[in-house]
User: Fold these one by one.
Assistant:
Number 1:
Amino acid sequence: MDFTEEQIERYSRQIVLKEVGGRGQKKLLDSKITVIGCGGLGSPITYYLTAAGIGSIKLVDFDRVDLSNLQRQILHYTSDINKMKTQSACEKLTQLNPDPEIQIINEVLSSHNVKEILQDSDFVLDGSDNLPTKLLINDACINLGIPFTIAGVLRFNGQVLTVIPQKKTTCYRCVFGDISGNTASVSCSQAGVIGLIPGAIGCIQANEVIKYLLNIGDLIINRILMVDFLNYQFNFIKVIRNDDCPACGENPVDLINNYDYKIDDACHG
Ligand SMILES: [Zn+2]
């Protein structure tokens, strides 16, 4: 392994783990991930994966830092208000660890750019705040054969689902079906959330990536982790793959080019 002295010291607490070792650290340094959203979930995801030495991290966000973000989006400081979130994130992450190559993309993820943005990733993390974007990530990753983890947070609750297309595990669309027309779904801005909830859920998403890359432990596949932080209930709900699912089923449809994700309504409505 050709680590520098500094890298050996920086990563010593994880290299010493038998599940990681020098080989595992090399694997992390050689891996490329994409994180959609530099907000409440994206903050812990990118902090911990940057600290762990993931080699290449692509940050996708179209938004600017707002005062009301700071209660939970801990990548951003008061002095960052009005700055692009990707820029603010990149500044913190490169200070934390200069090893990862950080790439920033200031675009709304849409059916027009999703494949190009995600295609060279080893793993994709959803840190978005709306259902249409989660469906788009699901459909594109399955089409491209890229593993990914999707999460949601609301009030005192969080959920996580990981999907491994190569293993044909249950996808987000299998579980939630066609939700793009569901205008009744509420976002955090309407329902509220305690800031540490996306913090804790984002950490679980980051854990999924590390375990997937190192091929250790059990992933949250074919089940959804449901966490209630108010009463400390941690439950897994079994979810079964739908053979007729248009994304992951036996006869998949070209959803990216044919499905109306209504992303613009979700992101700017
Ligand atoms: Zn499916």
Number 2:
Amino acid sequence: MKSSNYFNWGKKFLLFAFAVLIIINFFKQISTSNKQHQLAFKYTDTSCWVGAGIYEIPDNIHGDSIRYGRDLIAHTAKYFGPKGSVKPITNGMNCQNCHLDAGTKPWGNNYGAVAANYPLFRDRSGSIESIEKRINDCLERSLNGSPIDEAGLEMKAMVAYIKWLGKDVPINTKPKGTGI
Ligand code: HEC
């Protein structure tokens, strides 16, 4: 009698443990599918800022500078890497390693809010920074390089590209999908 009682309790305990496992798994599934849904939503959300592509760059002299700026940002190593054609001053990274798709991708550390918010006060330097200063900051810190001439062709081109990308963003606003 006693032993069959124990047996029953053992069975009941096993059933109970199974039920708990099934319930836990059920909730886990709900929460991961929710997360996946949220992620998918985040990347397909049409209210996010998306930068214009290369084929939208105007076909004129100003456009040539913008195109050069885009290429400098996408293929920085070609110009500033250890064997760079302009000046070998960086570690060989490209700006778009961190600013995805040449700084056009939603939630990809893009340049959407730059034109609308610079010159900007930055705590780090305790001063107001221009786009040029911010680019040189990334050249020095992120690409382990040295700053370039703020009045040079390359700086002007990168600034032209970044300003062109953000030209439709109202001043002092940060559209959804910009920043990190
Ligand atoms: C190793 C990663 C990395 C690389 C490479 C890099 N950056 Fe950055 N950059 C960052 C980070 C991180 C920030 C800060 C983002 C923030 O605070 O929202 C930043 C910020 C910026 C900003 C200001 C953006 C804003 O919204 O305030 C500009 C402009 C910029 N980078 C330009 C460049 C350019 C041009 C290059 C290439 C010469 C470059 N970056 C390369 C990581 C990088």
